[in-house]
Amino acid sequence: MDTVTDLMTTAGPGRHLITAVVHPRNAEPVTAYTWFDVLGEGADALWSGVYADTAAVAEVVALGFIVDKGSVILGTTAPTGEETVRGWLVDGHALRPLTADQIRHAFRETLGPQSDAVTYQTAFPVPASAPA
Length: 132
Hints:
Number of strands: 7
Helix content: 25-40%
Distance between the termini: 17 Å
Shape: globular
Order of helices and strands: HEEEHEEEHE
């Protein structure tokens, strides 16, 4: 849960959607998502969301760490209306930030041509997920 909590508290102001996907060998993908809002920044930031949905995302991320195969996508609508997408790959027991080009390429392969309304950004390191 620490990895997901750290990702949520580091996401910055706005409305966010976290989607976690794991691809276990010889099984259908496992997916969970949660919406949450962040008001303010830094230590004073307040975030709200549905705890059960957040717990489901944490379980899928934990499964990703076990099978060493998965990804996490963070879509954000900033208070100014700008839409951004960032992503991470499961790498051992950590989330490895993807660059803006890597996430753009991944979205182009799955969703088709890029939307002009979305900015792809390099993901930030998630403290609880840093390799030891």
